[in-house]
Amino acid sequence: MSKSLKKIVEESREKNQPEVDMCDRGISNMLDVPGLFTLSHITQLVLSHNKLTTVPANIADLRNIEVLNFFNNQIEELPTQISSLQKLKHLNLGMNRLNTLPRGFGSLPALEVLDLTYNNLSENSLPGNFFYLTTLRALYLSDNDFEVLPPDLGKLTKLQILSLRDNDLISLPKEIGELTQLKELHIQGNRLTVLPPELGKV
């Protein structure tokens, strides 16, 4: 296994390839991939359908990364260093085992798409600065354990897609009315009995 992964890393380095795809390779630890964190030139890294349980702090070495795909792993926690990725635009953490997000997560200055579908997150999982992610255009929180969302949701004014289906939401904050660019709101499969009138303005 490691030879083929090593080859992918070497080819990326030699040919200066910006995209590295290691989907479905049975990887359980990113540190087992020889030389992966020396690829500071890459802009896209796909590690979906593997067996990762954590993301190492070395992720910060991939400083030009724009797209990170960890879909369908067993990741339980993220390092605080992930928030130092200044160019990260698209982060897919769907279908993992996250029940918390690291401190400082909201300081990703370029993040546009965040997929946290199918995790174990709730309103208590979000760090205080989560809603500083004001560049977000799409936020996928479906299939988690949210009962409420904080009023700070209204700060995500660039949001066009907000997916909240299949949570335990009892209510939505009236500040959702501040999301004036919202085009899609998915709220099926919750415990909502009433929607805030402010939604009518969106």
UniProtKB/TrEMBL annotation:
Potentially plays a role in the Ras signal transduction pathway. Capable of suppressing v-Ras transformation in vitro. Residues 110-200 form the Disease resistance R13L4/SHOC-2-like LRR domain. The keyword tRNA-binding does not apply. One of its GO terms (cellular component) is cytoplasm. This is Ras suppressor protein 1. GO terms for biological process: signal transduction. InterPro entries: Leu-rich_rpt (IPR001611), Leu-rich_rpt_typical-subtyp (IPR003591), LRR_dom_sf (IPR032675), LRR_domain-containing (IPR050216), LRR_R13L4/SHOC2-like (IPR055414). The gene is Rsu1. The keyword Repeat applies. Gene3D superfamilies: Ribonuclease Inhibitor. Pfam families: LRR_1, LRR_14. Keywords: Acetylation, Leucine-rich repeat, Repeat.
